[in-house]
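Methods — Computational structure assignment.
A single polypeptide chain was analysed. Its primary sequence is given first, followed by the predicted tertiary structure written as structure tokens.
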Amino acid sequence: MYRFATILISLLLAVSSFAQSAERRWSVIGARGFIYAHTQDVENTRGAQPTGIQVDYAWRRTDSSFFKKLNGLPSQGISLHIFDYNNEVLGNTIGASYFIEPSIRFSKHTGIMMRAQIGFSYHNRPFHPARNPNNNSYSTHINSYLALGAYPYLQLNQHWQIFAGAQYRHISNAGLSMPNKGINWVTGELGIAYFPTGKKSTRELTKQYQSLPFEKGTELDVIVFGSVRSLDADSETRFGIWGLGLQKTFITKRTHAWTVGAEWIQDHALAHQISRDNQVKPAGRLGLLGGHQFVWGKLKFSQQLGLYAIRPSSEVPIWYHRWGLQYRIGKNNSVGVYLLAHRHVAQFPDIRWIQTIQRTSKQVSLRK
């Protein structure tokens, strides 16, 4: 674990040496919280109080080309964290993540930062049938890491800032290995930040950039995606998942869009289970989805709620939700990473190709 920490710290220092921007920030955060025992299978984690420290390096560009890419001037950064879960079953974790952080200014000295993070983490006490049989939360050393948070801040002077806030944090391997109930924990946090070149005001620049034109319209996408997952804790075999979708996107604001669509999911892990149980029923699922997207230039953050119109049995919940990031790599091509979940349990992540086959748009220059 210490070797892993050394690699992450080296990565953070390397990023900080290259990410030269109009505004740079170093932050140190102390955090303490509680674990949300979201299912009976993880009741043995209830009452645990994770305690940790987080170090962030953030940068913010303020040029017009950057505004056009992200439709705003958010900060971006790399975050390193280390937590002791204060629970013998769960052990300790260390991780790294990328974050994007838009902010709202209330006055010259106050405001709030809102953060979304995605990354990975290393855990030292995964499930093992002999050494740690009671860990139903995670079964692999490396897990995906997601977090959402908000930080009200007080700017003391040009170089120093103090802030407090809270984050919702989640880890899981997204169904690649079982058991995989995941860990959900909420932390209260206090932090201090240092701006080496001073904090820059972007209020006037943002007003100026808001008058730049943007494209409002619709997109029709064909989506192909794939993944793998295991069936249960006793299985080392990985089964393939593939899917095909059609989605209509309505871009209504500079940074907002709405989506409707349908998708077919062919789950070979489920097909194997049906065959093993000598059952005769389809292993595929037809989902109808609707949702919202934050549009940051070429980057989109998607949140969708789905309803299974076709499902193998009533044991599969009728509702599901999807979360994902996608990045446009050409005029009509995008790649993305999405996660499908039933209630509070992640089912599988997927890697997808999005092909835009029809687009209608018009340039709008009003401030939206």
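Note: Residues 2-206 form a domain with the Porin fold (CATH 2.40.160.20).
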